Amino acid sequence: METRKVQRLGPSTLAMTLPAEWAGAHDVEKGDEVSLRVGGKGALTVMPESVQTEDTEAVISAEGLNADAVERAIVAQYVLGRRIIHVEAPEGETLESTHINAVYNAETQLMGLGVIEETPDSIAIRCSVDPEDFTLDNLLERLESTGSTMRNEAVKALAHNNPDLAQRALNRERQANKIFVLLLRLIFTAYQNPTLARAVGLEDGFPLIGYRSIAKNLELTADNAEDIADIALEAEDNALNVDNDTMRRIRDFTDEVNEITELAVEAAVERNFDTTIEVRERFAAIEDREDEILADLPEMDNRHLLETREVLVSLQQTAQYAVRNAEIATNLAQNEEDAHTTIS
Q1: What pLDDT score was predicted for residue 213?
Q2: Which of 63, 214, 262, 334 is the most exposed place for a label (fewest CB within 10 A)?
Q3: What is the SS3 string spanning 271-294?
């Protein structure tokens, strides 16, 4: 860590020199303006004006890449906060149709992304997302709500022999993925530019790493709901071969899982330690629910038993992800003073 001595320039003015290497790397010269941001724990962040105004661009060369690799590269550049992404063919060649399709596939997956220019050898896409239009807390809540809706629809599809409900749940998976990737973009850009942390609803960058983990856990719970919807579409008569009482217990289990996933996110966004305790207590009450329902099943063939078990496993895993989110929420909550904790 480099240290600098603070100088007095006048009766009420203190000054500190900027490192020459840093100034050169960011094109900061005499007379330029820089931005100051006061953060937590006494931190003071100095940023060149270019950090706030510059639209970063990336160029992806399609040479040597298949369509999947091009699509993944676009998603990665989106997550990293690039405003404009160019996909270019090797010099003297035109873009292959598979690469063009990859660009348009990526466009449909990512919120705010659109093609702005296309020539035979290149395509330019621009992200119109403004970080100030979203908060991380709201996006986490939307992602959790989307996953819960998918779970409800998938389990109802099994209960009512309704493949349309199962397909509806599967259709929502794309929206869940869009929200997840947008969350990643905002988290990365707020990390790179601390001034954006306040724009996305945070006082400082401390929660970002925790939010990244919570977002991933919520994305995985949406995948669990997708698995249940797949079972509903593939099962005989689009239903589990269980009696009404067992189906009722599965639906009650689903409701309890939904409640603790919502509570865990609430604990994180509100920094509430008491809510994290409630999540753990509720999880303890259903921790053995999967085994209890399986143990009470009558004799059935392996296929029907496996389908029922897979549904219960998906629900149990979702509950476990909620506990992980509650653990992260505990760390966020305990970084602030409350009725239980004093920090000096």
Answers
A1: 97
A2: 63
A3: CCHHHHHHHHHHHHHHCCHHHHHH
Amino acid at 194: P
Please tell me the pTM assigned to this model: 0.85
Spatial neighbors of 300 by CB under 8 A, at least 6 apart, are 241, 308
Backbone phi, psi, residue 74, to 5°: -65, -45
Check: CB of residue 208 under 8 Å from CB of residue 133: no
Pairwise CA distance, residues 195 & 204, whole Å: 9
The residue type found at 252 is: D
316/234 Cα distance (integer angstroms): 21
10-residue mean pLDDT profile of the chain (344 residues): values are: 78 80 78 69 67 73 96 96 95 95 95 95 94 91 98 97 96 96 93 79 86 97 97 93 95 98 97 96 96 93 94 98 98 87 82
Count the neighbouring beta carbons within 10 Å of the beta carbon of residue 159: 19
Alpha carbon distance 288, 285 (integer Å): 8
How far apart are the C-alpha atoms of 173 and 155, rounded to whole Å? 15
* pLDDT value of position 15: 81
Residues 228 and 254 sit within 8 Å (Cβ to Cβ): no
d(CA 175, CA 109): 8
CA–CA separation, 214 and 192 (whole Å)? 19
Reading the block at residue 172, the tokens are 């929502």
pLDDT, residue 55, reads 63
Q: How far apart are the first and last CA of the chain?
A: 25
| 73: enclosing H helix or E strand | helix 67-79
CB neighbourhood size of 290 (10 A):
19
What lies within 8 Å, CB to CB, of 80 at 6+ separation is 58, 185, 188
C-alpha triplet 193, 195, 200: angle, nearest 5°: 95
Categorise residue 314: left if φ over 0, alpha if ψ from -120 to 50, beta otherwise: alpha
